[in-house]
Amino acid sequence: MPDVYNWHLGRKMSYPYEEAHPRRQFAFVFNINRCIACQTCTMSCKSTWTFSKGQEYMWWNNVETKPYGGYPKFWDVKLLSMLDAANPGGQVWDAAVQNGPSKPYGLFNGMTIFEAARKQFGPAGHNHAIGFIPDEEAWRGPNHGEDAAVTFEDSYRKASAARPISAEGSALPEHRTWFFYLQRLCNHCTYPACLAACPRKAIYKREEDGIVLIDQERCRGYRKCVEACPYKKPMYRGTTRVSEKCIGCYPRIEGKDPISEGRPMETRCMTACVGQIRLQGLVNIDEKTGLWANDRQNPIYYLVHVEKIALPLYPQFGTEPNGYYIPPRWVPRPYLRQMFGPGVDAAIEKYVAPNRELLAVLQLFRKHQDIVFRYEIEEGKKVYEREIDYRGRKIPFTLYNDTVIAFDAAGKEIFRTAVEEPIHVRPAKHSNSV
Asked: Measured between alpha carbons, how far is 73 from 175 in angstroms, rounded to an integer?
């Protein structure tokens, strides 16, 4: 297997194909703290792409409740167990060696799904990534475990009958009783496991935007992609006997949607988001290094590489996913670190007490259907200042009513919005006025 560089891991790793990168990469950021699990994103995707016969169980976009939920059931728990069995006690990070864009989270010393397969099957093995094919039972409940909470003691294996779930209230920084919503779709990975596993070479990554697609003419439905993908986003369709997956709504990305007027647009699931938790864009890729090119005013680049507040989902899998998450601030940190890596603590601290620029950029989420390629900030007046108590420390915080301006690919202004939303108070004219 050739060696490729994975900046999520801070090192090179084994992968079946030589390193190659698109000119630009489809990427997105989800703010978990804002999600209300209304499933509007889920239904917008379903009504657009997977409403036909044989697609009944296909939910390319889904929102699941952690820690007990998952679609298919236990998709992550099973794979984490397989990795731990392949490398007992060795799935650890060295966060002390962080070094800029090439090593932002430190060094992962464990095994990826590709390296575990090489250990298990040998360099010439029939599987290039460890994985499994979920059974029918696993696909039956897309809302399995919804809103099912876990106690603080349960999460540390210290459950006690003397401390029932309602015995104490919850308070930051970590709630005693907790759950959170995890939004998922295909991550259009830099090193897709589905692509690596396909014996027909029916899966490819587009040069223009990095979106991963399945060639329906070449696919023969072997389901190797279903087995290998750690996020379980390729899905087999029995009526056509081929696999299908999220296509990144590429007609919208290309600006060919009838309502786009030639401008790149966000995907259907992004634009439908009620909670305004989603921000999707395209980032430039450095042709020589394969890293994200320095683009300071691109909001996705800013959140991932400048503030490092948005983190990849299970970076230890080794696929270098292009979906990033602002972790929930009320969840016990050990659980979040195994899910998002060692950058969790710093990310949550920045979210709890955001600086002036970060607070402005967070206002860009889900404000318009057009993709935001660049932003500018017009400074406004100071509203107030205070100290935020975080884990026994006082962090200074100042709120400014700045205006953030979003621009499209051509440099044209799309919209502008202020940090403080205006409040309109209607005068009461009747006794029952609301």
From this structure: 25
